[in-house]
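INTERNAL AUDIT FORM
Audit reference: QA-55
Scope: verify that the stored structure record matches its stored sequence.
Auditor: D.O.
Record contents follow.
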Amino acid sequence: MHFEDFDASPAATPPAAAQPESALPTRLQYLIDNTPALIYSTVPSGDFKMTFVSNNAFNMLGYRPEEMLADPNFWFDHIHPDDKPRIVASLAQVFTEGQRVYEYRFRCANGRYLWMHDTLRLIRDEAGRPLEVIGALTDITDRKAMEEALTAKGVEQQQLIGKLREAHEQLLQSEKMASIGQLAAGIAHEINNPIAFVNSNMGALQGYVATLLGLIDAYDEAIAGHPELVARLAPVREAAELDFLRGDVPDLVQESIEGLRRVKEIVQALREFSHVGETEWQMADLHRGLDSTLNIVANELKYKVRIVKEYGNLPPVECRASQLNQVFMNLLVNAGQAIAGQGVIRIRTGAQEGWVWIEISDTGAGIAPEHLTRIFEPFFTTKPVGSGTGLGLSLSYGIVSRHGGRIDVRSQPGEGTTFTVWLPQHPPRHDPA
């Protein structure tokens, strides 16, 4: 095919390529060379050697048509290596279906890869034998870029939805903690008054019992010299089990006073745990927060766990104490649930170079290595359905992060887990509540 008489190509088109001769009219040649698609044909075998390439190949790809025709492997050799296997695997379907559409990356003369939309169509001769394959290449790089941008936008939106969901769950958890705090305040207010007067009455009763027992002792001394009186009162003493009462009544009164003291401690622990009304940053004693939290979770742990406290010297820490107490509660409850039978939870604390650390370790089942990197993900849990939300550690991680700290974890399956909370004594900045 000769193009010497072709003079209407764009200025960027090189001199006419030396292609096979044909009687293609000049007008038709002009239309082919200026169509948005690169038109080509190949042999229907081997590496699909090109037999014709339209002149707009130079404008689109930077190659002269004669370069593309001279290399029998040109088409295959310029397809992106990652896309080539997919095309090779399905190219035979052109011969069964008659037409195939591909999208792949093609290397230009400047080394850049362009995304191409390629429509291949098989041409057969009158006997039905494959004659040649005609293709039309269209540059879809811009479209692919937009698709990738939309995909990235979709991923970003999904991530945003995930963050909103996590924030919503955190808000619900915060509201739950606020409700617990309000409930604790109400309990403290309603219970403190009756506890106060019952405790006062028990103290008075303890004194009265001591007085009465002293009076009985005085009577005993007074009648000791009168055998007839001692004999008359002996059945009364025996019926009243006076000797038993003398030993048991003081113990009962003392146990009741101890029970009231325990109730007061529980109410006080609830108040300290929730820190009702305290939403601002303040200097707090973390040991006091740990102790109040241990009181709250005592019922969860007392039947199977022995608590070992190894407190170091901790300076006051600027924080939101109720939020850190929630972290301690999550770690302690998780540690207790990791222990199937009897076990130990060890709490150690210390300070160094402006930081404090709280270490909570257990002798439980440990965490599998494949789960260790995911335990702080929202909604991730290894507990049975209905036994956990997978939010405890995620919320704890967020609280500690907002305090400018971090949580370290190390675990060995079958040997237990250790969580270490690191907190700066003075956080670098205070995020909104």
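Auditor finding: record pair retrieved intact. Residues 141-223 form the longest helix (83 residues).
Action required: none
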